[in-house]
Predict the 3D structure of the following.
Amino acid sequence: LERITIPLKDGLITRDDTFRGCENLRQVDLVEGPIHETIASLQLEEWRNNMNEEIDAINQILPTVDAGFSEEEDDVGEKAQAIRTWIRSVLRKIIHYQADHQRLLDEEVA
């Protein structure tokens, strides 16, 4: 397993051992859809660039993360945790930018 495509959804990966032994897992792509539309609609190019960098960050991190190799229960690897942390980070950032975007729109109307 080298690459996965997933929706941006918190709670999607619940088990720490989901990617145990998947040492070749190096890339995560997001399912095309609402997240990409939301990013494209952000008012400032800086925000769009920042979000795209945040989305790509997992592909920089994942190759360096331990996959866990043994069948010992405590050696589950860190790839699932890295992906969960990344998902939450992307979601937090998009919520932040959406709020800032709305604030700017409200200011323009006022």
Q: What stands out?
A: The mean pLDDT is 92.
